[in-house]
Specification:
mainly alpha; 4 helices
């Protein structure tokens, strides 16, 4: 699915959140093995907030301020 498909999902970004859960389950809940899926969710959530504003909400995404912090932490770790 594309970013636009995932933004249009109900709830938005839900397919990417599910992909993280599936990955974690397959990998014994080792987050380091699922970084690609986590980054994909952050990408979708970032696009969601850019489109709908910082006060928007979807169960699939952290609050906008926490998302920005997580994205910055991920960027510094690489």
């Amino acid at each position: 699915m594309t970013l636009q498909d995932d933004l249009a999902a109900n709830p938005p970004c839900h397919p990417r959140a599910c992909a993280i859960q599936n990955c974690l389950t397959r990998n014994g809940f080792d987050e380091s093995k699922c970084q690609k899926q986590i980054d994909a969710l952050y990408e979708c959530c970032n696009a969601f907030y850019e489109k709908n504003g910082e006060s928007a909400s979807t169960v699939s995404c952290p609050k906008a301020s926490l998302l920005r912090l997580k994205m910055e932490q991920t960027k510094k770790a690489t």
